[in-house]
Each structure stands twice: as C-alpha cells, then as structure tokens.
Amino acid sequence: MFGFFDSQEKKMRDNAGNWLELAAKVWNYRRDRLSGKEADELTRRSQELRRLLKERADAGRLKLGIESLEGVLRRAGGAIYPKTSLVENVEFFLVAAIVILGIRTYFVQPFKIPTNSMWPSYYGMTAENLPPGSAAPNPVARAFRFIAYGARRHTVVAPRDGEVYVQLVNLGGRPTLASTVKSGRSWLVFPAQFKVYTLYVGNEPATVQVPFDFNGFDEVVFSTFFPSHEALEAQIQRAAQANDLEVVHQRSDESTNEEFEAVRVPLGRTVRAGQPIVRFDLLTGDQLFVDRVSYNFVRPSVGQGFVFRTDNIPEIVRRYGSQFFIKRLIGVPGDRIEIKEPMIYRNGAAITGSQAFDLNARRISPYRGYFNAIHENPSFSQLFAGDTITVPENSYLALGDNSRDSFDGRYWGYVPAKDVVGRPLFIYYPFTRRWGSAR
What is the DSSP-derived secondary structure letter of residue 274? Predict the structure, then answer.
C-alpha cells in the first residue's frame, strides 16, 4: 500500500523476488519439456539472481540479474511467459468472476425489490406521473434522475385525433387495465417478461411496454384522467347508461392463443394526434445487499426482513416461476398467528420485533395496517377473519408490510426452512433518503 515510499533497492529486491517466483513456476510446469541447455540455463540464472538477493546487491546488479533471467524465460517460458494481453485479460476476468460468484453464493448477494408488497419499508418500481401539459424534468434533470434513481421516461402518444378508450377488467370490483404478457430481453441481453398495455384513440391503438412486476400503470392512467377513483367509477356508470361499453377479447400472453374478456370504456376526453396521452417516469426499485451468512449460525428472528427462494412454493411457481422473494418474518415453527385487523397476534399477544409492526398496528401513514385474507384457494389460502394458524416444523410464515397489496403467506402458505436465503443488509441504490442500512 505504501510501496511508493520504498527505496529503489527495496523495490528492485521485491521485483527480483517476483521474477524468481515466475522462474519456479516455469520450472515446475515445463521442466519435462525443456531441453537440457534450457534447463541448465534457467537453473543457473535463477541461482545467480537468488545469490544477488542474499548478498543484498545494489539495484544496478539486481537489474542485470533480472534481465538475464528474463531472457531465459522468454525463450523457455512457453505459454506461461511471455503472456499475450488477451490471455492476461481472460485470466483476470475469470478470477474476478470466480471471486464475485463465491461472494454472491456464500456471503453477500445483491437483490432488487421488484414490487411494492413491502412498501414503504422497501420500494419496488414506482411511477412518477407527469400529466400532459404539466412541467417535466428537462434533459439535464432527466440524465441526473436516470443516474440517481434509475428513472426512465415512458410516453404514450396519440396516433390520431379522437376520444381516448381503455380496456378494463373486474368492473364489478376495482377496475383494472387489461394487459398482455410479452417475452423479451432486458438490456438487450437477459430474458425477461413484460406487460403491454394498449390505449385507444377511436379505434387506433397506442401501446406501452413496462416490466412484468410493475403494477403502477393503472394509477398513472386513472390519475391523469380523473381526480379520484370515484370519478372513474362515475364515468363507467355514465358510459354504461349510454350503452357505450363494448365487450372485447384480448390475448393474455403473446405466446399463446388464450384470451380473456375485457370491457372497452371511453374516458370522456379527446386528444390531438401527436400529443401525449399519458407520460410518466418509471423509477427503479430498491436494490440491496442480502446477508447470506448469518442464518447458517443463528435462527431467523421474527420481525426481520426475510429473503427466500420460491422453488418449493407451488402457488408462487405457478404464477411467477422460481424467484427470490422478500417479506417480513412473522412466525417461526410452533408460533400461533392470528390477524385482527389492523394487528397481528403472535401466541396470543400483539406481535413485536419490528417498527413496521407498530406502525401498521397504529395505521400511521403511509402504513395501512394488516388485513385478513380476502380470496380463497383451498390449497393455499389461510388467515381469514377468525382464523388462528400454527406454523409447522421446518417452516416459516412471511407477510408483506403493504398488507392490502401483498401476495404473501396468506395466499401461498409457508416458506420451507431449506429455502431461506438471508436478511437484507444495505440499500445501495437508488440514491434516495432510503439509502443505507436496511430496516
């Protein structure tokens, strides 16, 4: 580290030692392929340089000894010396890859929060709405926001003049924009899935593609056109009374022929060709380091952030495939768990171990409390109102902090102990006020 301050003699002695190590490597790897003359010369030049080191010769004599040894190595070193820059670079990146994979596998793993099931403790991808006609960040600000927050601009442009229509599902409950799943590549390299949303101006489509795990596009569209969800529902009712709702069929996935029914709804607003219909910046989710070491020595504690593989949780695999999930640990083997909205009870008492438990229990904004399961799948769902469950052996129960919008242990059951990965350590990106130690 402080070699800059070493004397010339000290630097030359260190250099000579490095050359002797290289000569020993060539001898060990190639002595059976060296001619008698090459072997004798390599041995003699190495002994001479070793003698100069022992005699503490000055820098000039050491330099001559190194140059003599280097000439022999150049003739006898084969693939070991001299190396081409290509070989050196390949070796460097190979060693670096092995080190990185080792650290990732056994010590610390980077992890990206995709959804907002743990909001506001951890943020998934979020949208910052920039309604048409309002001020938007200029190019310099956009560049800064991309570097600091991973912000990417998405704009849906009107293909013609006319009224805007959307296709909605679940009109009997909470209206949701219909989307189609599309396979593609992230950063032009990595296989990924996306959701494609289509808005219409008259009969002309205008599409936008977003990451599969992003669930905020509905809110962008609805907040652009309506001051509240009540106003949206009133527009749907007006369209229904005017017989202006049309049932359509939309593909659920571009790779299949499966379709579902949606309802085409006018939004009561017209646009001009070339104008933005909606515009927003998509901000990346929190990216953090996960400690993979601790749980090899200590048992996970209730209240900790909890990262696990989903390979052996059938309902998650069915919907999303094998992934890594992050939730908060609610119960360990033998715990009795009940939800009495807005609180969780563990073994008959209000749960403790995390600030998120207290904030949810008191519904301190933006925390909204914990909720019982609201839809039933007999194979997986649990914790309906009045239910008390007991966490089985070799299993854990994990729920999201954003309980109303979290797909968690209420709907897919328990985490097998063998699939536990670790606990979050540090949010390293984006550079927001959340940067720092994970909660």
Answer: T
Distance of alpha carbon 248 from alpha carbon 259, whole angstroms: 10
**353 and 273 within one domain:** no
Low-confidence ranges of the chain (pLDDT < 70): 1-6, 83-89, 91-92, 100-106, 171-172
Q: Which domain holds residue 173?
A: 126-283
pTM above threshold 0.85: no
pLDDT at 360: 96
Say which residues have a Cβ less than 8 Å from residue 118's Cβ, sequence separation at least 6: 124, 305, 326, 327, 328, 400, 401, 402, 406
134 and 193 both lie in a single domain: yes
177 beta partners: 168
Residue-level pLDDT at 186: 81
Let me know: does 168 contact 128? Beta carbons within 8 Å: no
- Nearest by Cα to 249 from 298, 286, 198, 285: 198
Cβ contacts of 16 within 8 Å, gap of 6 or more: 49, 52, 53, 62, 65, 66
Beta bridge partners of 276: 157
